[in-house]
User: Fold this.
Amino acid sequence: MKLLYFDDYRLGILKGDAVVDVTDELGDIPVVEQRTLMNGLIARFDDYRGRLETAVAREDGQPLSSVSPRPPIPLPRNIDCMAVNYMEDGTRDEPAAINGFHKSPSAIIGPGDTMVLGDIPATVFEGEAELAVIIGKRASDVTEAEAMDYVFGYTNFIDGSARGVGPANNVFFQVKSRDTFAPIGPYIVTADEIDDPQNLAVRLSVNGTVMQDFNTSDMAHQIARCIEWTSSIHALEPGDILATGTNHRGLNAFMDGDKVELEIEGIGSLAINVRDDLKRTWSRNTRLQHAEKGLEGAHTPQLSGKYAK
Assistant:
């Protein structure tokens, strides 16, 4: 099942190229506001699944092209992101120590929205293509063996980053938690529809050119281990997001006017825009291309605009 929000945060289920509005079927779920209805449904999904399947069977829905999609989880309690969690196509000799960071839920945007690059002295702005896990029930001190039982579903996630800002001991907060730096969507795919989340093709394109192209089989610490580790630090709640990391070799500068599209096998396609009012520019080299040219630094330097050196 594929669940989404659309228009004024109506909750829908995808049926082919149409969306069936099931909001009225969920009227007895207590919510603080409409944007938390998805979290409430996830927590009670077993009780509502039959009702939703019946509603989808009897309704034709409306064309997906006629509605405005929204982020499918606009108000998670937590966004936890794994750091350095890929073997980088075998170029790492061994996995990095398991690690992660917390990203502000207020950074979330959805399909068709715009990532805004602020007036800060970042050395580069990047967006990391990631498979995001949606937690289905409260998870605290979960073992790796049982961890996948806590997965409700999956969605696309772009981890926006403003590199080179902040003091060395406060990097993740200033780099990762800026407004608009957590695009997700276009919908949540329930776990039963994904045969093997550890074998999914991931592709991120910028203006139609594929920049990141890797497979989730390259994860250094697999999803179950990530859930075990994260839930040992704090409890995860229904609707929380666990982003599983990226292969850094294809990372590239995001710039004003860019059209970015992330597609993960079986998870759909998330398209966003990029805006930079300062119109700064960088080379289109990926990190891998930059390294292959023997150039200094981890990424291509800024070429023009405010803060260029």
In short: The CA atoms of residues 98 and 104 lie 20 Å apart.
